[in-house]
Amino acid sequence: AASPAPHGGASAGHGGPGVPAEEAVVVWSPEVEVCLFHAMLGHKPVGVNRHFHMICIRDKFSQNIGRQISSKVIWDHLSTMYDMQALHESEILPFPNIEKNFALPDEMIQEVREGKVEHLKTNSRKDITWTF
């Protein structure tokens, strides 16, 4: 009989039967963490663009270690080292984000009451010219 492959019967790079390769366990040695930090250079996985930055981090990290790793594996590991929620909340938004209640202008409300909006809506569809 053949001897089992390492990692619980899975061949190298696979997480086992029914487990995709990208969900395989990563042994977070200091060398592997250095690869992660190199992949993170120029990419901050916090703030409104955190998921876009994570895609770049994941791709660079996977290339550095020579196998595909999911973003979830990286998020999970970063969460063991940092309070990711606190970092995300402390991030300054790159644009103003003021919340206020929305109110239709009075003239629009009056047009709706008078039935002008429906009339405009049906007529404007015929007059639309699309230019590209």
TrEMBL record:
<dbReference type="Pfam" id="PF07904">
    <property type="entry name" value="Eaf7"/>
</dbReference>
<dbReference type="GO" id="GO:0005634">
    <property type="term" value="C:nucleus"/>
</dbReference>
<keyword id="KW-0804">Transcription</keyword>
<dbReference type="InterPro" id="IPR012423">
    <property type="entry name" value="Eaf7/MRGBP"/>
</dbReference>
<dbReference type="GO" id="GO:0006357">
    <property type="term" value="P:regulation of transcription by RNA polymerase II"/>
</dbReference>
<protein>
    <submittedName>
        <fullName>MRG domain binding protein</fullName>
    </submittedName>
</protein>
<keyword id="KW-0156">Chromatin regulator</keyword>
<keyword id="KW-0805">Transcription regulation</keyword>
<keyword id="KW-0539">Nucleus</keyword>
<dbReference type="GO" id="GO:0006325">
    <property type="term" value="P:chromatin organization"/>
</dbReference>
<comment type="similarity">
    <text>Belongs to the EAF7 family.</text>
</comment>
<dbReference type="GO" id="GO:0035267">
    <property type="term" value="C:NuA4 histone acetyltransferase complex"/>
</dbReference>
